[in-house]
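Technical note accompanying the year-one report. For the benefit of new consortium partners, we illustrate the data format agreed upon in the data management plan: each record pairs a sequence with a structure-token string. No post-processing was applied to the example shown here.
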Amino acid sequence: MSTPTDVQSAEHAARRLLDARRDDKIVSVRELALARQAKVDAAAAADAADRADAAAWATALKHGWTEADLREVGFDAPTRRTPGRPRRMSPGRKRLDLVLEMPARAADAAAAGNGAVGSGGDTEGHPSA
């Protein structure tokens, strides 16, 4: 009777097929991991190059070059600035930020059930009836 041989042959053929597919899957994951690592490494290198470019730009400015001079020579300003103390906000800028916040405050008051934005209970200069 040849049934056990046929079962064993089928089993061996199935194992070879599964092993080949498993190997292909493992190879594809390895290739994906290598590609991702290359992407991470390239991003880190680009980040380091951006920092070096910004530092060299800042050094040139400290040594007396103006931004206009550097642009005339052919250098654009770096896309990234060197880290440091944040610039002070001008008084006019602070007032603009306050004006921009007012609609948000009015919306918060309306959401809280307090429809009055100003004082005195009237809206838009119209007395309530």
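Partners are asked to follow this layout when depositing records. The chain has a mean pLDDT of 80.
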